[in-house]
From TrEMBL:
Coiled coil: none annotated. GO terms for molecular function: phosphatidate phosphatase activity. Residues 1-19 form the signal peptide. This is Phosphatidate phosphatase APP1 catalytic domain-containing protein. Residues 285-431 form the Phosphatidate phosphatase APP1 catalytic domain. Keywords: Membrane, Signal, Transmembrane, Transmembrane helix. The keyword Signal applies. Pfam families: APP1_cat.
Length: 522
């Protein structure tokens, strides 16, 4: 019944080849270098905020969105596309229950948690150097995990699977789905005091060299510290905490070394709250990388596959991207720092951190904390966290890596280049629309207008990044065609901006393609 769709779509694409728009390089504006500060807590917590739990019918949302498209031919140019196309943000992993909502849904009370151990999720932190010494940003969550029977876990896990029952999955995928479900249905612990033990870290992460991620083991620095504040109503803690440069072979001063230093951080009283902290010198290169569909295969643009890849299947690297990062770790200067930023809610990020540890250079992390849980907050949290890193390290250069299927990235990355032109070294974006026929998301390149056209690159495969001298400012592989129209684009759908009018047959092909994107999930 749907066999004509590929033919129509190919016909549309054949008729509408994209024009290449290459702007002239623009001069970089001078920006005054700010003195580093001990930055305040990164998250503005609202203890009075809660979120109702609601099982989302993703297929219904998509079908409704496509139905709306049918009412407006203008949508083929992106003006009326449904939000799941224009925002590029998956609807799963939204509005997780928290605290008492979990107990209510499970039919449990506080007494059922009394015998359960207190656990801690500690996000791998970074530290900055100021005139007062090193300050490490300790952030994470304190929680308890209810004891649930497997049949209840399976019932809850099926909420996050489309047209799939957990019992139909292979045994290893069943186990992962159950573990992730347990991580979602936790009860955050408010007003908890957290303390830590720090000591030199011998290694962290897979980077193609001993040690991982360009960082070194400091000669000392073992110490104990207590977090200065109790946890919030959502169980979160997040603040920069000064650490001591212990006498007699302690930490290297940030103004006396070009090396990133590693410290293992152990949360006292639990075996779950361990991570590695990265002490980052004031100057050097920081590679900030998204994870989904750039470091691993996720397919957030295909809800059924995206959920299975995130919820049940083992995380799989995207092509040979680990080799690219391993090469950067080996060849870039010793002051290079890797930072991984995902807007996935913090409850479900242990798999992400484990995957990075085993596959990519070790580095610090940012995730979406619990008070950024609704849809609108999802679209703002990345900008918030990126700005935090930029302002924490005002003298460092940044290489931003991601893909085109996230609209927040397509807005936030070029905005940073406009706002911090002396700090953004390169923007490297995988063009998923050009290489994956399942990606129907248009992406908006308007934010790149006015930027130096050699400071960013839209690439298709990891090997496009080989031999780039990113430390020297080479961001563009001249052999890779750049089709930047500074408007809404989608190679699969043949959308190349408002300047490219579509014929009637192309419009029909686009519309049928939109409908086909729904049928592929059924």
């Amino acid at each position: 019944m749907y066999a004509p769709v590929p033919a129509l779509l190919l016909a549309a694409l054949a008729r509408h080849a994209a024009a290449i728009a290459i702007p002239e390089p623009t001069a970089l504006a001078y920006v005054e270098v700010r003195a580093p500060q001990i930055t305040p807590a990164a998250i503005l917590f609202r203890g009075d905020r809660s979120y109702a739990y609601d099982k989302r019918n993703i297929l219904s949302d998509i079908a409704s969105g496509v139905d709306n498209v049918a009412k407006s031919w203008g949508s083929v140019l992106g003006t009326d596309l449904p939000s799941f196309f224009t925002d590029g943000i998956p609807n799963w992993f939204q509005d997780f229950p928290t605290g008492t909502q979990v107990l209510s849904r499970l039919g449990m009370g506080d007494s059922d948690l009394a015998a359960r151990p207190t656990e801690v999720l500690l996000i791998p932190p970074y530290a900055n150097w100021t005139e007062r010494g090193w300050n490490v940003r300790l952030h994470g969550n304190v929680y308890r995990q209810p004891l649930l029977e497997q049949n209840k876990i399976d019932e809850l896990a099926n909420i996050f699977l489309i047209d799939t029952d957990i019992k139909d999955l292979p045994a290893d995928q069943q186990a992962q789905a159950r573990n992730l479900t347990r991580e979602i249905f936790i009860v955050q612990q408010a007003n908890q005091n957290v303390s830590f033990h720090l000591e030199p870290a011998p290694m962290q992460g897979a980077s193609g060299q001993p040690g991982g991620g360009n960082a070194v083991t400091p000669p000392g620095g073992s110490q104990n510290l207590t977090f200065p504040y109790d946890t919030t109503a959502q169980g979160d803690f997040d603040a920069f905490v000064p650490i001591q440069n212990v006498s007699g072979g302690g930490l290297l001063a940030g103004n006396e070394t070009n090396n990133v230093q590693r410290l293992n951080v152990y949360t006292n009283g639990t075996l779950t709250g361990n991570a590695t902290a990265y002490l980052v010198p004031p100057e050097g290169i920081t590679i900030i990388s998204d994870i989904d569909d750039i470091l691993r295969v996720t397919k957030i643009y295909n809800p059924k596959e995206g959920l299975l890849n995130s919820f049940a299947r083992p995380f799989t690297p995207w092509m040979n991207m680990p080799d690219i990062y391993a090469n950067w770790s080996r060849t870039l200067p010793n002051n290079t720092h890797f930072h991984y930023l995902t807007t996935t809610p913090e409850q479900v990020t242990r798999n992400y951190m484990d995957f990075i540890f085993k596959t990519y250079p070790g580095g610090s992390f940012d995730t979406r904390p619990l008070n950024f849980s609704d849809y609108k907050a999802t679209l703002s949290i990345r900008q918030f966290l990126l700005t935090k890193v930029f302002e924490t390290f005002p003298k460092r250069k940044f290489v931003l890596v991601a893909d085109t299927s996230n609209s927040d990235i397509m807005k936030d990355y070029p905005k940073l280049a406009h706002d911090y032109p002396n700090q953004v070294q390169c923007i490297l974006l995988r063009n998923t629309s050009a290489t994956d026929k399942e990606d129907w998301f248009p992406y908006d390149t308007s934010g790149f207008e006015g930027l130096n056209n050699r400071s960013y690159m839209f690439f298709r495969i990891p090997n496009d990044l080989k031999n780039l001298d990113i430390s020297g400012g080479q961001c563009l592989n001249s052999t890779i065609p750049q089709n930047v129209t500074f408007t809404r684009q989608a190679e699969v759908l043949g959308i190349h901006g408002a300047a490219h009018s579509l014929t009637g047959s192309a419009i029909l092909s686009v519309f049928i393609a939109l409908l086909a994107s729904v049928f592929t999930f059924l």
